[in-house]
Amino acid sequence: MKRRRRYLLKTVAALTLASSIPGRAARAQQPIRAGFSIAQTGPISAGGQAALVALRMWADDVNARGGLVGRRLELVVYDD
Questions:
Q1: Considering the chain, what is the average pLDDT of its residues?
Q2: Phi and psi for 47 in degrees, rounded to 5?
Q3: Are 73 and 63 in contact (CB under 8 A)?
Q4: How far is CA 13 from CA 17, 18, 31, in A?
């Protein structure tokens, strides 16, 4: 009886581990999306456009170094 139980527990543990590995690999491929709103049009657009250029340069630098926690960084920008 003990032998069957050990076998069952080992099998369940192995299947659980095996099923979690592909999920982790798939999540590692997805980029980290950082979203924000910034003025791109209107009376205060000059400052917003300059800040957006700086943020995009920062994101490109981060991605060139390997990303955040091994994942690519993607900026999502909305005009407010």
A1: 84
A2: -70, -40
A3: yes
A4: 6, 9, 30
The CA distance from 78 to 9, in Å, is: 51
Q: Which residues of 25-53 are buried (b: 16+ CB within 10 A; e: fewer)?
A: eeeeeeeeeeeeebbeeeeeeeebeeebe
- pLDDT tens sequence across 29-51: 799 999 999 999 999 999 999 99
Residues 75/59, Cβ–Cβ less than 8 Å: yes
Predicted pLDDT at 7: 75
pTM score: 0.62
